[in-house]
Amino acid sequence: MTPKPDIRDLSLDELTRHMISAGEKPYRAVQVFEWIYQKGAWSFEAMRNLPGELRECLKKDFDLKPNTVVRKVVSEDKTTKFLLDLFDHEKVESVLIPTATRTTGCISTQAGCKFGCKFCASGLGGWKRNLTCAEILAQVLHVQEESLNHKRPLSNIVFMGTGEPLDNFDNLFKAIRTINSDKGIGIGARHITISTVGLVPKIKELAKQNLQIELAISLHGYDNESRNLLIPVNRKYPFDDLIAACREYFKATKRQITFEYILIKDVTCTEKAVQSLKKAFKGIICKMNLIPYNPVEEFGHKTPSGKEMTDFRDRLEECGIHATIRTPRGRDVGAACGQLRHASQLLAK
Ligand code: SF4
Questions:
Q1: Which residue, 61, 238, 257, 319, is most buried by CB atoms nearer than 10 A?
Q2: If you measure from the C-alpha of residue 209 to the centroid of ligand 1, how many angstroms do you get, rounded to a whole number?
Q3: Is 269 among the residues known to form the active site?
Q4: Could you identify the atom of ligand 1 that is nearest to the CA of residue 114?
């Protein structure tokens, strides 16, 4: 038997077309969207203002998979990490990060990761598969539910969980359009950030999407050589090509780019790095998020001291590069940047 599609794999337009072809009024699609994305319905039975016959038809045609949360851990700083069980028992993690001014959901886009960056736990178990649009949206719905339980509506989404978002481009963008839609989750494009390890052709494609989303580049190196050490895909898309693609992106969108930069003692947190970054960023409007390295036992790196990190930030500022040091969140529960893992490792823990 062919598996039924998950209804969250459909855009509002697609669902509207489905309703029309089934002899229903188009507004029924909007009602279904509101039930799923705004009223927290996890079953067709829960959609009480739909006629029973229509609910039965939807049940026959579509799935609405629970993507059950099998583990939830709350860190001392109230960051909450969720482990979700997918239909084939692959598992992915999502994180809810509350701060004084915003409530952010950090969402995974792939089960595992094929890029194997040398500081990140997500790539250690290898890549299993892309997540579907429905599986991406289900994570957002789980973090939204949790944030509403705490009376803190979800304000931001960052695609910085497991996987490389731009390596799952079509499903990612379909999900983003529903997240962004006022009939869907209703989060403004400027509150949605895609983080990429630097897939140059996809950055060029991203520039052509007519969406005001934020782009963050996981740079983590200050020249070709240093980036090669930490980011294997840099051999395919070298540092200079990446910076050139960022220039093109900026020219096309006029959007400021964020560069994520991991601070590793004696590796990336050096004066040589400051000088190289100064040269590379000339003429690009950008900001740098400096991320203190979050320990992963399989890698031998060390986190620089507090003074080394503030000195590095101050040197960048002196060179005209706006930089802030990100406060690590959820480190105690392995929810911080680079600490999310693939299922096989999670279950072994
Ligand atoms: S940093 Fe991103 S691309 Fe690199 S291994 Fe981790 S999840 Fe994959």
A1: 257
A2: 23
A3: no
A4: 8
Query: What is the best residue among 164, 199, 228, 230 to mutate for testing ligand 1's pocket, by most ligand atoms within 8 Å of CB?
Result: 164
Distance of alpha carbon 297 from alpha carbon 280, whole angstroms: 32
Backbone angles phi, psi at 196, to 5 degrees: -125, 150
Q: State which H helix or E strand residue 111 sits in.
A: strand 110-112
**Which helix H or strand E contains 168, and what residues bound it?**
none
Q: Is the pLDDT of residue 349 over 60?
A: no
**What's the gap in Å between 92 CA and the centre of ligand 1?**
14
Domains in the chain with CATH codes: 7-61 (1.10.150.530), 69-348 (3.20.20.70)
**Distance from residue 340's CA to the centre of ligand 1 (Å):** 10
Residue-wise pLDDT for 289-299, tens only, equals 999 988 777 77
Cβ distance 302 to 265 under 8 Å? yes
Active site residue 319: no
Token output for 262: 């991991």
Contact yes or no for 169/130 (Cβ under 8 A): no
Evaluate if residue 188 carries a pLDDT over 70.
yes
Residue-wise pLDDT tens digits, 54-91: 999 999 999 999 899 999 999 888 899 999 999 999 99
First-to-final CA distance of the chain? 36
User: What strands lie across the sheet with 286-292, from one edge to the other?
Assistant: 69-74, 80-85, 91-98, 103-106, 156-159, 192-196, 214-218, 257-263, 286-292, 322-325
Q: Which atom of ligand 1 is nearest to the CA of 116?
A: 5
Q: How far apart are CA 48 and CA 24, in angstroms?
A: 16
